[in-house]
Amino acid sequence: MNLELKRLTDVPKQEIINLMNLDLVRRQMPLLKGYFGEGECGKFLAAKERLWSEFGYGPWAFVINGSFAGWGGLQPENGEADLAMVLHPDYWGFGKKIYGEIIDRAFGEMGMQSVTILLPLTRTRVKALDRLGFKAEGNLEMHGESFVRYRLERPI
User: Fold this and answer.
1) Which CATH class is domain 3-112?
2) Quick check: pTM over 0.90?
3) Is 26 helix (H, G, I), strand (E, B) or coil?
């Protein structure tokens, strides 16, 4: 498998639009409301590019063997580096490899001390987070939706 992390603006907008409108993907994203069209995609890309400008990091496009597989990475969230991953269902089996690349960059070249993950309360299968070393910190609310925050501390 050849994994590339590219800027989201390097991916055709239509591929992002298609991903964000898949029912299987939307079920995992309670903050994504309504149809995700050309206008929403433009605002989304502009917001993600602003993160790179303001903080020096943000989400990437995941390209596997030359095909757009999804997006995610690290984004600032309430003063924390939050890890997010949105994959096309055809690539759900590649999450661990992508996660490893993101974590290596976070704790390596980026020098972060911890990363968080926010999962909606509907995500009850979290044993993998335990195995990876994440610890639940409690619930929080964002834009009217409830999430559980998990934290992974930088290995010593």
Assistant:
1) alpha beta
2) yes
3) helix
